[in-house]
Give the backbone structure.
Amino acid sequence: YEPQSCASSELGADELSDSSPKEEDLDPAAALYAHTFAVLKGELLKSQMLEPELLDFVAQFADLFRTIFRAYCDIPTQGSEGHMSLLAFLRVCDDFGLFPVVVDFQTIQWLYDTAEGCVEVESPPARRKRTSSVVSLGSSRPGKGRRRSTMHAYAANKQEGFLFHGKWLKNHLSWLTKDSDEKTPAEQIATSILWAVGEWIEYRRLRVKDVFIFLDVDGSGKLSLEELQAGIKFMNLENPPTPEDIAQMMRLIVPPVQRSNDDKSLEVDFGTLDMALIGVSKQREQRDRAANCFLKDFEKMTRQESKACIFLKGLWDLLEIKKWTPERLFNELDSDKSGSVTADELTDEARKLMRMQAKPTAALSIESPFELLDTNQDGLVSRAEFCELLEQVSQARKIKALYEEVKHPIFLSTRAVAPLNPQKVFGARAFAEVLIKVALVHLGYHGTIAQAEQPAFVKAMWLLVYMHWHFSGAKDRAAEVAKAQASGTAPPSPSASQFRPGRLPRCIPPMQQLLKHNPRLFADAPERPPALQTP
């Protein structure tokens, strides 16, 4: 039993390698036992998947599996429903409470790699690697020629581009740097589309070429208007843009020398599209910083912001323990009652109070945490500056508790990566197969004796009941947020429309998408097997 791998998109192997010993590292007896056990386990799962009752069960709930697959599927393909990367499947398991409680990462990776329901597709042509004649073969310093080539390229392109928040943009993309009120209506619509597409790609931790690898049929590294429209349609954005809006956006991001009156002849290369998305992402970062820097993901904070965040979190915990207000805390720190203190004095006094707490805090190890507090650069921190920043910390904590998903560390440290020549697509059929195998493995090998003895379709039914339970919990949490917003007790969402007014395209996470468009996903499951083929 040696099924071929269909991992068209996989997590970084270096970051998520199995911590258990590899088969080749074991002694011969242990290696033989491990191999035999894996073969028997695979054969048992295969025989269970072929039980008639389970096949009937899969056909009965085919629409349910397909709906979940479409919400989480992250790579569009030609002539199929799309491809789901390993990271996207892992997100399904996380959102529905399967990972890491029911199944561990190694099991998920094994089931994903050995899925037999993958669809064969034609591989896109391999792209030719660019070579540079500047690199000297006789150079004694590796990379010297490459650095010289990069410097020459920078000098050559200096007249064709500019730096925007540390990122290089071409001159024809300068409209991205304008304020909203300075942009034309066409530029505003194009910005909103790029904004939503950038959020979609960033949430799924993909790159532009990963998303469009299957749509670039000729392997040229360029997208036609039709291919770009197909990719954006696949993203299933809220308030999706019209084909005319996408064509208008493409005319703005294509270099002037490549523009023509015939939209069908327009093509944009991956580098230019990625450059436009970077420009919009920098604007988004500036917006987040202007609104509240503590709303950003920790890995995106500046050094000053991260230090202030850790230290002020410790201070806010101190406030909650002592039941003080920010004003009362400042009075305790302001020893001479002058209404302002230096950053060093504020740090020393705050540390004295923290050391008196029962539990140690990471804030004590932070040096110069109040660089962010001195907003007017006068060397002093006033009562107003101190209280305003603590209020931002409070607001950020409330917003994250209400709106943000609890992310497993695996989603913060990894990225979905697509190989150059994918040949198999992990589609809806493979998705249903692997999801059911998760239940078979859990109940068969980690459940009670009574659970292990149940037929395969009973274990599959347990899977749907378990997922329905977590789906109902997510629905209840969403209802609590809506109720708090209606009563005015909830702070505004960090993605609220005050930054992007009107019915503009936007990206929402897959679980929120299911809750909004399929609230009765499990309740409306068919009572009788419909006349459908298995997914």
Notes: The radius of gyration is 27 Å. The chain is about 50% helix and 5% strand. Residues 24 and 31 are 7 Å apart (CA to CA).
